[in-house]
Amino acid sequence: MTTDIRVPTLGESVTEATVATWFKKPGDIVAADEMLCELETDKVTVEVPSPAAGTLAEIVAAEGSTVGVDALLATLSEGAAAPAEQPAAKPAAAAPAASAETVDVMVPSLGESVTEATVSTWFKKVGDTVAQDEMLCELETDKVSVEVPAPAAGVLAEITAPEGSTVDASAKLAVIAAAGTVVAAAPAAAAPAAVSAPSGKDVEDAPAAKKTMAEAGISRDAVTGTGRDGRVMKEDVAKALTAAPAAAAPVAAAPMPRAPVPADDAAREERVKMTRLRQTIARRLKDSQNTAAMLTTYNEVDMTGVMELRNEYKDLFLKKHGVKLGFMSFFTKACIHALKEVPEVNAEIDGTDVVYKNFVHMGIAAGTPTGLVVPVIRDADQMSFAEIEKAIAEKGARARDGKLSMAEMQGGSFTISNGGVYGSLMSSPILNPPQSGILGMHKIQDRPMAINGQVVIRPMMYLALSYDHRIVDGKGAVTFLVRVKEALEDPRRLLMDL
After folding, report:
1. DSSP run (H or E) holding 415
2. N or C: fewer beta carbons within 10 Å in the chain?
3. CATH code of the domain covering residue 441
4. What DSSP letter does each residue of 317-380 carry, written as one string?
5. 350-391 pLDDT per residue, tens
6. Which amino acids are annotated catalytic?
7. Dmax of the chain from CA atoms?
């Protein structure tokens, strides 16, 4: 008897997805509700659980393939093979020699130039039975999170790198013993968050859901699981965060006081270790201040022309290109136009040399639950408005989902940061080294302006250009910002390359 595994409902108006990762391979024994694969749509990541216990017989849709709703992903054989997936509680079920076999769990490849990581979360504890490819723990590097699957089925015999420890690229994380091995369980305090379902059996929440709960600082008790037997899925955590943002907000770590803290105050403080991403952000920003001779020049732009042009063509734009026409493509085009006239803003210092870039790899700063990241749109100067908008939407979604790779955040030549989406009226952005310029966008606000001797209300935005004065002179910085202002106040100049 076989069971078909099909693409689940992907959400309103979403008709297709890409098979991102298979956690199992043909021949693997799986438990009911165990994660089989992960699908990616334009906006969300969808995990596909096993509908029943059994053996994965065939994978029909390989990684990288595009599938529609209800498409066949794989087939599952049930019956005789199913009992084998139950936790090996009886030593007699294993071969006599198997109890002596162990498999080391090593740090996986972390990416080019990444030499160490921090163990952020263990999903299993010593003594737990694990299936092959089941997620054991999660590591944090400077930019991305890396999940570590079990290299073999068995029992987690030892954890050699506990949560919070720093490991290098070749370190051992844990040891897995053969199924049936009796292992002393770890102290109860180290047990992962698992809930008891009404059916009376333990339910392991989805790894992506655990990750999201940990990042958002939300308690497992505050989330209602909609998976089988009450299993918490990633979508359940998102709903809980939307319904109760105050309860879901993580508690911020108070700054280290310079003076002794009264006992009553100390009891009400909470100390939280900075993530590696936050540590890297702090280090790079401070390095930027210490290295570059950073100055900021300001101007303001009347957004009337851009807003009118956008309102006139936004429906046709969406209909033809399948993406909304936003402000970021106008700002990206305006910056590209200005960088051609003032190339030193698009350059960098390498020792005693100045490296001028004959291309524009535009960094678009994006806020995520774990910190600020800057995905890079390569060769933005060769793109149309539609191509830029599509790239920004795709990179932004991957940033929010934590799916950006190191390569996607490297090599930028200039950066745009939009603090206006958070309500910022004026700020001085910090350079993203080794770049020599960054443009800060801000809130659009109606203000009275003197136009042709008359006071009129116009939608105005303050612009800020922070630049490295070692390579960019004041004249060049002011000229750059004026050219951006001119292009935005008369967007037709962008079409005419004026």
Report:
1. strand 414-418
2. N
3. 3.30.559.10
4. HHHHHSS---SHHHHHHHHHHHHHHSGGGGEEEETTEEEE-SS--EEE-EEETTEEE--EETTG
5. 888 899 999 999 999 887 776 778 889 999 999 999 999 999
6. 469, 473
7. 95
Identify which of 399, 357, 349 has the alpha carbon closest to the alpha carbon of residue 374. 399
Q: Is 81 among the domain residues?
A: yes
Contact 155, 174 (CB under 8 A): no
Torsion of CA 26, 28, 29, 35, to 10 degrees: -80
**What sign has the CA pseudo-torsion 32, 34, 40, 42?**
positive
Domain count of the fold of the chain:
2
Residue with tokens 């990288």: 64
To which H or E segment does residue 18 belong?
strand 16-22
Q: How far is CA 402 from CA 17, 45, 269, 372, 405, in A?
A: 18, 11, 29, 11, 9
Rg (CA), the chain: 27
The distance from CA 207 to its chain's CA centroid, rounded to whole angstroms, is: 15
CA–CA distance from 453 to each of 193, 299, 449, 485 (Å)? 67, 21, 10, 21
Residue at 142: amino acid letter:
D
Domain CATH code at residue 12? 2.40.50.100
Question: Which DSSP category does 394 fall into?
Answer: H
Query: By the 8 A CB rule, do 206 and 143 touch?
Result: no
**Backbone dihedral region of 286: left (phi > 0), alpha (psi from -120 to 50 degrees) or beta?**
alpha
Render the burial of 357-391: b for 16+ CB within 10 Å, e for the rest.
beebbbbbbbbeebbebbbbbbebbebebbbbbbb
266, part of any domain: no
Nearest alpha carbon to residue 363 among 287, 431, 277, 281: 431
Closest CA to 435 of 471, 483, 388, 474: 471
Query: How far apart are the C-alpha atoms of 467 and 455, rounded to whole Å?
Result: 34
Domain presence at residue 399: yes
The answer for residues whose C-beta is within 8 angstroms of residue 177's C-beta and 6 or more apart is: 99, 101, 102, 154, 155, 156, 157, 183
What would the pLDDT profile of 149-200 be if each residue is shown by its tens digit? 888 888 888 999 888 888 887 888 999 988 766 666 555 434 333 333 344 4
Domain boundary residue, one of 52, 86, 120: 86
CA-CA distance, 491 to 493, in Å (whole number)?
5
Which residue(s) pair with 111 in the sheet?
Answer: none
Among residues 31, 57, 86, the one where a domain terminates is: 86
Q: Strand, helix or coil at 236? A: helix
Structure tokens at 376: 């890079």
> What is the domain range of residue 17?
1-86
What is the distance between the alpha carbons of residues 88 and 105, in angstroms, rounded to a whole number? 20
Burial of 13 from C-beta contacts in 10 A (0-12 / 13-18 / 19+): exposed
pLDDT digits (tens, 9 = 90+) for 415-456: 999 888 888 889 999 888 889 999 999 999 999 999 999 999
